[in-house]
Write a structure and sequence with these properties.
9 helices; alpha/beta; two-stranded antiparallel sheet; Rossmann fold
């Protein structure tokens, strides 16, 4: 897989990335991990929803974390909840921005199922322990994390690797403040980088242009 070098100072050529994305979006049942910072700007959140709509129209599936901001913006683009795998760190997890709970139905424009396809997925038992062990490997200061923080970071593993941790996503689309693997999103990006998964960071103009070209947005 093409190394997009998020830790590299070189700028990827938009046409090369667009070609990679065209190949991905032509695959049957391709999987997109849609994530990002809670500080994602409003115009990018709107773009994320449009990206989700375009990916669903091409048969794509979504993986995300159900958090406020970027996660919900991507999820809102998918009109069929059954095409979404939303991973929560614990039961009763509620999306918030600035400590305030969000109106999930309003943001998504639909109901999210509480059971069955499209309902939040919470890893448990051996799968959770495996995800937790993986997360400890990728986090730079695991020993400083609270149990809640460890659960949050562990839920990044299935966002990239799937509910059984055995089917890597085809592309990660995100936004981070500095265009690199930082913040909570950085945990998922480090996994993707290690696995050679294509990453599109919408904070980077070249990445954004390539994705817009590939999807015809």
């Amino acid at each position: 897989m093409m190394d997009l070098g998020l830790n590299d100072t070189r700028t990827s050529r938009s046409n090369d990335l667009a070609a990679v994305l065209n190949t991905i979006f032509a695959r049957p049942d391709f999987v997109v991990t849609g994530i990002g910072s809670r500080e994602t700007p409003d115009d990018v959140l709107a773009l994320m929803t449009r990206i989700g709509t375009a990916c669903e129209a091409r048969g794509g599936k979504l993986r995300s974390g159900g958090a406020g901001g970027a996660d919900l913006a991507f999820e809102a683009g998918w009109r069929d909840a059954a095409n979404c795998e939303i991973f929560h760190p614990w039961r009763g997890f509620k999306p918030k921005i600035g400590g305030l709970s969000l109106d999930l139905d309003r943001i998504l424009g639909r109901k999210r199922p509480t059971s069955g396809p499209g309902a939040p997925i919470i890893l448990s038992g051996p799968l959770f322990e495996t995800a937790k062990e993986m997360a400890s490997h990728y986090h730079p200061a695991w020993h400083r994390c609270s149990d809640g923080a460890k659960a949050l970071h562990s839920r990044n593993m299935p966002q990239v690797l799937g509910p059984q941790l055995d089917r890597p996503t085809d592309v990660v689309i995100c936004w981070t403040v500095d265009g690199g693997p930082t913040g909570g999103t950085g945990q998922a990006l480090r996994v993707a980088m290690d696995r050679g998964i294509t990453i599109v960071n919408l904070q980077r103009p070249d990445h954004r242009a390539a994705l817009i070209a590939a999807l015809g947005l």
